[in-house]
Each structure stands twice: as C-alpha cells, then as structure tokens.
Design brief:
alpha+beta; six-stranded mixed beta sheet; binds zinc ion
C-alpha cells in the first residue's frame, strides 16, 4: 500500500487533472486492503481433471460464481465503498443513494446484490430493475468482492500451468482482459483478467477480442513522451486494449495506471474504436 500511495502522489504531480479520480481510487484501495487480513475463505479445490480440461479442451477452470467469497467482509466493504462514492461526485452520490434506497425498501438485499452481480447478465438485469447506472453498480459490487477473488487466485496460482493457453479470455474464469502487459523478456506479453486479476501469456501479435493475428490490421499508438502506455488497435473488430509496458515502470497496480491514462482512451474512442472492458471512467 505504501508503494501504491507513493505512485499515486507521483501521478498527481505529473497529471494534476486526475487528482479527483486518483483520490477516489486510493480510498477504495485502502478500504480493500483493510479487510484483506481478516478474510475467511473456503479453499478453491482444483481437481486433476480440471487441469486436464484447461490444457486439452481449452475451457476455463471456474465459473465466476464458483469463486469463494467472504460475504460478510464483502458486505462491510460494500458499505464503506458506498460511503466513499457519496463524496466522489454528484452522479456517483446519486447512484449510491438509489442503491441504498433499494436496499431500505427491500427491493434487494446486500447479500443477493453482491452474490448475483458476479454474473454479468444478472448484474445487468439488477441494474435495470433498480434503475441504476450499470457501470457504477458493477463497480461497487465487483470492488466489494475483489479482495476475496484475488485471495483465492493467489492461493491457487502456484498450481496452475497456463503457458500454453494463449487465448483471449482468462484460463481461470473465462472473462475478457482489462489490460495488456508487456514484461521483462523480449516480446513477452500478458493479459490481465478483468474479473479475477489473473495474468496469462499470449502471443505478441494478437487481438484478444476477435483472435485476429494479421499484422496489417493490428497497430498501436501512444502519446508523445509516454511510451510506457500504448493503445493496441484492431481493424478487424474495431476494438482496442490498453497496453502498459512494465519494462519501463515498476509493476505496482496496473488498474491505477489505466485510470491515470484516460486521455489515451479518449483518443482511441475519437478514432472510432471501442473498449470491450471499460473502466469506471471510460465509455
Ligand atoms: Zn479471470
Ligand atoms: Zn479484433
């Protein structure tokens, strides 16, 4: 957390326009960190057959709903995050108020909200039923269970062998990637799962969203003087993924780096590309 705070300070100095977003993110991460130490989680048991399924059949290991969650801790975190949301900006405050009203009026309870929102289709349905902004609602529910999910992944990651996976979706939970990461070895490229945070290796030239591998239709751009970040564009599906070059900066929190480079998303969107897995501030 100290490293993260230091990095947030650096980013605020470098890009003062992001101060509000960075402050919000820091508060969220602090609350998540607080509950990490006391999480009570069932172990994730990986059966031998599952591992075979992963390598031979190309199916992910778990469904999102199969991840063990400390629901009590997640509910507490949800309440703290809602509190932070109220002070963030007027739109978020209004959304949090709506969520709280729905809970008060017993239209949904916190447990159900957190458990069911794990599945994308259900999350969308709940947001629609309650008249909520889907992205904000998902943010609060997902960030509330994130410490549980990440603790589960940490426990099983040593047992996993995913070097040969090379697909555009997560070998653990099947979700699409949030970011693309470049690492130490020459050309080593990994994707970061948008749901469980697992990182898996993929080929250098590859669109994770449509499996395009043709060099002519894959390109990228970056902002002058900011070679650490780039946007990888695919002309086949007209979608993009943000890449963070971790050979140039220390790997502290890639999600933070994503939030601090929204200007690149704006450029990509202006060029007519779409981001399949947006963050809270992108469209
Ligand atoms: Zn995943
Ligand atoms: Zn594509």
């Amino acid at each position: 957390m100290e490293k993260l705070k230091k990095r947030i300070q650096q980013l605020k100095k470098k890009r003062p326009g992001y101060k509000e977003i960075l402050n919000f993110y820091q508060k969220v991460r602090e609350e998540q960190e607080k509950i990490k130490v006391s999480l009570k989680l069932e172990p994730v048991h990986l059966k031998k057959e599952w591992k075979e399924l992963l390598t031979k059949e190309g199916f992910p290991l778990l469904e999102r709903k199969d991840f063990p969650i400390d629901i009590e801790a997640s509910i507490n975190l949800f309440q703290s995050l809602c509190q932070i949301g109220k002070d963030a900006n007027p739109h978020m405050a209004e959304q949090v108020k709506k969520i709280e009203e729905a809970i008060e009026n017993k239209r949904i309870d916190r447990k159900k909200l957190l458990r069911e929102s794990v599945e994308e289709a259900k999350a969308e349905q709940i947001a629609n039923e309650l008249g909520l902004d889907k992205k904000i609602c998902s943010f609060f529910t997902q960030e509330s269970i994130r410490p549980s999910i990440e603790a589960g992944i940490e426990k099983i990651s040593n047992e996993l062998e995913t070097e040969t996976w090379l697909k555009g979706f997560c070998p653990i939970c099947g979700s699409l990637p949030l970011l693309n990461l470049l690492k130490e070895e020459v050309g080593k490229r990994s994707l970061l799962c948008s749901f469980c945070g697992y990182q898996w290796r993929i080929e250098r030239l590859f669109c994770p969203f449509c499996n395009n591998k043709e060099q002519e239709s894959l390109h990228y751009f970056y902002a002058e003087g900011e070679e650490t970040y780039r946007i990888d564009l695919c002309d086949k599906c007209h979608q993009y993924i943000k890449t963070i070059d971790l050979r140039k900066i220390e790997e502290i929190d890639s999600t933070l780096e994503d939030l601090a480079t929204l200007h690149l998303d704006i450029l990509a969107i202006q060029k007519g590309y779409k981001r399949p897995i947006p963050n809270l501030w992108t469209t």
